[in-house]
Amino acid sequence: MNIILILTCFATFYNIKITSYNKDYLSVQQTENLKGIFILLVLFHHLNIFAGVGDIYNFFSNAGFIAVGGFLFISGYGLMYQFEHKGRAYVKSFPKRRLFVVLMPAVVMSVIYFLIKWKMYGYSLSAMKDDFFRGSSVISNGWYVTAIIYFYMMFYISSMIALILKKSEAVIILNAAVAIFYIVVCLKLNYEGHWFPAAFAFCYGILWAFFKNKIDNNLEKGIFAVLAGLIIFYYILTMGLQFGYGWDEFKCLMYLTMIVLVGMKVKLQSKIMEWLGSISYEVYLVHGLFFILLRNNYIYIADEFAFMLTLFILSFISAVILHKIFVCIEKTVFKGN
Questions:
Q1: Chain centroid, CA 294 distance in Å
Q2: 20 in a domain, yes or no?
Q3: Could you read off the pLDDT of 261-320 as tens digits, one per residue?
Q4: Is 203 exposed, middle or buried (0-12, 13-18, 19+ CB in 10 A)?
Q5: Which of 8, 3, 21, 1 minimizes the C-alpha distance to 270?
Q6: Which 3 state secondary structure label does DSSP give 267?
Q7: What is the dihedral of CA 100, 104, 110, 111, to 10 degrees?
Q8: Do 101 and 330 form a contact (C-beta atoms < 8 A)?
Q9: How many domains does the chain have?
Q10: Which of 16, 35, 272, 308 has its CA 20 to 30 Å from the CA of residue 316?
Q11: Which helix (H) or strand (E) holds 266?
Q12: Segment among 73-77, 136-140, 165-169, 256-260 with least mean pLDDT
């Protein structure tokens, strides 16, 4: 079974390049590679939690919120980068070009999940509503989908306010408030703990994009010292103190900082990871479907390796097909715009 991990490591670290300073540490190529790594972490996490595929995968038992934090960080960074460079034109096109891209696939997949659950288990609209208010998306393991739609909508609103105020800093402040509000609502609704530890990652990405030039100028010659100091500080703090509220949020931001700092020295150039990153949203949307379809009252793949391999193959193939369909829909809807 460990062959899956071996192949994953090979694909992840294939053709990496160690540099004196990687100025493109948050370029499209680098972030697509990171998204490919993050989606694999999500898959291994869910396999460990829900499928019991072997003790070696216990390493991924707490990796889920950090991987999702990575997605949120990259999204926040990318949106703020575009806003900073394109301004009003970007905000004007945002509902069509950005919100639609995350919302339309989520709606389509929600319908598919609902129909399959209805056919197999008699799932109803009332049950779906009840699930939502108790913190369970109709899309299996789909809390990230709910979160990213919420944060995209709030970014759009905050960017419009920032344009009115003529202060791009307003985007940072408003999205920090948005993250706090999101956490408070999750707590009030008694959502499970995995819903909110990554909430500040989106705002953190926005913050990094806003201060990127200053960060780069200050860190270019001292990355190793900063990274080493951060690791030492984190692990001393871990041994000596763990506060009840905010600890997971803190851990998520610390790990993301370390990942980005390592990226300043390591250039990721794996075509496999880049490809996987380009379909990571679709993989996230569809992989939970195969947890349902491969283990139920009618079909049940008991063998752990066979289940894992089948889930990977079907998830990736389906994600490629869905990605092509969604891109086609997007082009058709906005043809001529």
A1: 24
A2: no
A3: 999 999 999 999 999 999 999 999 999 999 999 988 888 998 888 898 899 999 999 999
A4: buried
A5: 8
A6: strand
A7: 150
A8: yes
A9: 1
A10: 16
A11: strand 266-267
A12: 136-140
